[in-house]
């Protein structure tokens, strides 16, 4: 009786959250963080690069200039070029990953046609290595092959699924927009902060924005906030200090 009850519960798995939303097999990943990984990585990279690149550029020019115009010009040019470069670079990079995935999928199709028995055995061995008994692994492999052989091999042999599959356009938009969002902050600082010792004001402003970025990224990804803040502020400081040093070393009045 208990066995029958357990099977029925397994077949009709549902869980009610504190928001009274029923969790089913179709939506249970909605509350997890992994499905955000693709666009979150691109967005954090873009915003972090925007803040650090534009701030470092402004600080480097400010260290060698006594007027505002060169600083503003450099930051505007850097913002436009950086955003386009980030979006294009992200698109090209992720598209290359997509090409590799498509190539492997086509290869898998060919192998399934030419040597289905070997591919079945390979799938069974994958499940066996994950902890299933040899007989059970073979049964699972056969049943999944009967349903959709290609999908089973793409998912379990190649490791490609809907969560981690490359999305070039999504990554490009997230990265480019995030760069603008991050870079616009030091740009506004270049416009409105006092020109006297502006590099120090820009540094402080950038550290503030980097801390906010680290907090938002950590909250969105479910990771440690102090660790994220330290990571972005430390490397941001390194970049801005080295850029300022270059400006001081050149010592050119722009």
Structural description of this entry:
77% of the residues lie in helices and 2% in strands. With 254 residues, it is mostly helical. A two-stranded antiparallel ribbon has the order 1-2. The longest helix has 46 residues, at 69-114. It is elongated and about 75 Å long.
Q: Helix-strand pattern, N to C?
A: HEEHHHHHHH
Count of separate DSSP helical elements: 8
- Would you count the extended β strands for me? 2
> What's the main sheet like?
2 strands, antiparallel
The amount of beta strand, in percent, is under 5%
Major sheet strand order:
1-2
Q: Helix coverage percent of residues? A: over 70%
Radius of gyration: 26 Å
Low-confidence stretches: 1-18
Q: Overall pLDDT, averaged?
A: 80
Number of domains: 1
Distance between the termini: 85 Å
Structural class: mainly alpha
Oligomer: single chain
Shape: elongated
Secondary structure: elements and pairs:
Blueprint: H1 2-11, E1 15-16, E2 22-23, H2 37-63, H3 69-114, H4 116-129, H5 134-156, H6 168-192, H7 198-221, H8 225-250
Antiparallel strand pairs: 1-2
Helix pairs in contact: 2-3, 2-6, 2-7, 2-8, 3-5, 3-6, 4-5, 6-7, 7-8
